[in-house]
Queue: 2 jobs
Job 1
Amino acid sequence: MTRFIFITGGVASSLGKGLASASLAALLQARGFNVRIRKLDPYLNVDPGTMSPYQHGEVFVTEDGAETDLDLGHYERFTCVDAKQSDNVTTGKIYSDVIAKERRGEYLGATIQVIPHVTDAIKQFTVSNLNKEDFVLVEIGGTVGDIEGTPFLEAIRQLGYELGRNRTMYIHLTLLPFLAAAGELKTKPTQHSVKELLSLGIQPDLLLCRADRDLPVGERVKIALFCNVKEEAVVPALDVESIYEVPLRYHEQGLDTEVCCHFGLKTDKPNLDSWKNVVKRVTTPEGDVTIAIVGKYTILVDAYKSLVEALAHGGISNNVKVKIKWIESEVFESQIIPNELENCDGILVPGGFGSRGAEGKIKAAQFAREKGIPYFGICFGMQMAVIEVARNLAGIKNAGTTEFGNCEDKVIGLMTEWENEGKLEQRHEDSDKGGTMRLGAYPCIIKENTKIHKIYGKLEISERHRHRYEVNIEYEKQLEKFGIIFSGKSPDNILPEIIEIPAHPWFIGVQFHPELKSRPFEPHPLFSDFIRAAIEQSRLV
Ligand code: GLN
């Protein structure tokens, strides 16, 4: 029997509903249950693919090629369960499906309305494409009280009624602000938020209360009484040093025990040794290294969520803390030598779009190559490294990418046709922007006896992609003469997937996004090895 846990948020946004959902799922997993986590996002975009990272943070890409909310990254990192296309939906997607169905005449003349047609579509999405999971955790984006969230809340209310209370549970995440003048944590916003939920017909079963200090017993009793939940179901969620501590702290506060109790389930205590081990490594490192990330969205760390986590995982596997120095690539465009790069142990140029700041990224790659500093180019970062090598080593002065308009030497160009699982995919300059990149997992064949071969320890890999442009294979021979090799390619030998400079301590560019597959328990080999190389570099200086 599949049970559904609905997680809503109240009082304020950014309370960490995604982490809370991921942590509860991890705890249930540690008790031996199969879990899946889904996210229902109330905004109107069909998916976050076209949104600026400033608006919405990173776009997380699944194996099956969906562009999704960054919370799905937390879900994967905490549970090691690969998320799917069917795990994230938005109002935009629900509406476009409902309208397409109406155009096909499938509603047989009915007047199409938010209730029941939109809510039915949300319910159907929530309960379909499952695989006998014990628990499906469903996080509702936004905050209770938002106008656009209402159809989602109505849909989950109906699901509770239809599936029965023994198969459903409502968890509400709220905030208890500390008021210095009163010297206490305030419960009133939580009471109001629960009232708002009640007005929509939802009585929460458990309250997860975010606070920056211990919740006194008296306050816990008060919240329980006024919000109509058991005292044990008022679970404090205190701030922690590392996100990987969250499952441990929730367990201590009785979250998973209470959830099992709600469903009448008896299990052994969860085994949380692997979590304890990760937290120990994160909180007691033996040293540190500094990695410079040269990017465009550096003021918003959420824009590089998976990347930051993957670097931390690389630190976990080497027992060091990875310090990140954020560098705005545009700065270099007016500077000859990027001074800020001098004192770092590794340089990483992440994925990116558009010409703003690109010349700075090219300079960062040049600096890393010439100074022998470990360089990791991811997607756009690989493309910029290829342009750098083409211009400065191979003498192809006008090397560029068609992403910035027409250029003389199209070292990077738009891929107009390629095969995906036997199907021909086609793109043009004027194709729609949404959902039309090379997306999701693709296989890559690695050249024997290369650095990348040593790192992965195998010759065939699969990694996730999200890009429109590709390195132009026609330049392979010309560039190889100057010491850069194309050490990974698509199985048909047409798309360069990995480049490296064998004579450099660590200069690797990958067309895919390895950060999306890194997990705290299984750090990605590329990140582990990059941090290892950075440690070596730190010993040199
Ligand atoms: N803008 C580049 C492309 O579309 C790189 C994308 C990325 O880094 N994800 O190919």
Job 2
Amino acid sequence: MIGSFLFQICSLIYILLISAIYFYKKRINTIENNIYKLLIFFDIIILIIDLTSVTLIYNMDIFPILNIIFAKLFLVSLIVWEIILTIYVFTISCNENENEKKICKKISIYGLSFLVFSVLAIIFLPLHFMRETNYVYSYGLAAQFTYIATAFLIAVWIIRLLRRLKYVKRKKCTPIVSYVILTIIGAMLQFYIPQLLVVSFVSTFVTALMYFTIENPDVKMIEQLNIARDQAEKANNAKSEFLSNMSHEIRTPLNAIVGFSQALEAENLPEEAKEEVQDIIMASQSLLEIVNGILDISKIEANKLEIVNAEYDFNRILEELVALSKARLGDKPLEFRTSFDPTIPAVLYGDHTRIKQVILNILTNAIKYTHEGHIDFKVNSVISGNICRLIISVEDTGIGIKQENISKLFSKFERFDLEQNITIEGTGLGLAITKKLIDLMQGKIVVQSVYGKGSKFIIAIDQKVVKTPTIKIEEKKTVSEITKKDFTGKKILVVDDNKMNLKVATRLLQDYQVEIETIDNGFECIEKIKNQEHFDLILMDDMMPKMTGSETLQKLKEIEGYHIPTIALTANAISGMKEKYISAGFDDYLSKPIDKLELNRVINEILNKS
Ligand code: ADP
């Protein structure tokens, strides 16, 4: 007799332990969790009824009516458990357009009707008992009805799961399919060998398995955290994409403003007008820096900012930095002093764009926050093996930074003494970006400051020394020094879908006395080259609808004998773009707004060769 109880007693102890842990742990309030609570609850009820019912059968003669009541109650509780599992299967297999709550409610109504029908059937259908020496079980139409009802519910789960397989999250699919298979095996065993009494054991086993796989509160918590993290990542990516698109959109009109202003600056304008044009250029420059800053910070936050190393001429970077700083000084009564270590190797290997950006940020701040006195810009180096440690220091006699603010200096959007500095433009992003870039380049930045007296920023960055450079070292000319060569007889084709960009390029190229042709798509460009039209240079915008500049170039390269130097033009000016375009087959790259100096370099390099 004990053998008949063993399964049930063990199952009851086991499920009670699991439910104690389950209800003790902190849980998330989801529909699935609530359905699972019911599954545990009804499993305990099934086991209690089962135990009582078996005990009563062994004493059949004492309480004959109670036997029938408990045996039928057991069948009803089994159907209730199966219905709850059906609601669970339907809830977890919702598609993205369905609301879990609504589906759960709808299935609960069907479930309730099915339960009422089953209860009536079980009450009115006959049930008999079989008692042998070693086992005891019930049989008859009520029991058979329960098996058929269970088989029907299992068929419903299978159809639902097969139809919604792709919506059942992968993790949930395996346990649920195993439960379905287990329940089928259990039901069949019980049907063919009724004396086994495994039904309540199967329901416990499935409920316990669910606890260890998908309904464990810890697993649920992690799952919810993962969902929250995925959503945050998605939102962050959407924000980065939005910022990147915005930056591209802002650069396009800015290209027109800078381009036309640069062209006007070179005209014989009255002094006052010339100054105004220079102000427009300066203002556009500030706007461009803000756009670049926002783009950089969004990339840093999305972990998408990369360091792109290449050979570069360090002295040229220094010259550019000095020229830019002097231009930014304007008419401030400041002495700008420089001291550069002459032993710094001419060609270094690193990300020159980011090195320049970092130093320019520090220099610009020194200029912005110093009203009188001087700024010392020093670069020293320590060489060991093929590594050159650059030690860059910028010291100013400016407003200084309070000691308590130094630790907050590199956090984004932090700006200090706003009442005093209200007239100084800034976004509070510069130093946050600077620090992140220095970290990415494995460098260090240190700040010393005395409030009211001045500040000193020291940066140390290691760069590789290039002993046999593959790049040419040339002297950089400032805008005023540009000597525009006369390239009469040369023909340049500009391809850009934006009419304003075509006008700007035409205006900037006019100074070189070249013949200029403009078209607004890649298809026409391919047509012209196929028709053997001759050009000495093609300036090709990359981001064009229907066919991008890169795609156009690939098609051009398939034309036999194609050898026209082609320069990529893009407003998507991020670090590493030049390398990307050169590896895509372009001869060089110009970012928008087009820099007059860069344009001059490219035109001279290419047209002199042709
Ligand atoms: P922004 O200059 O655009 O405000 P930064 O991130 O470059 O943003 O600088 C953050 C803040 O640090 C500035 O607003 C300023 O208060 C302070 N700061 C930075 N450099 C200096 C400096 N050389 N002298 C005094 N204060 C400075």
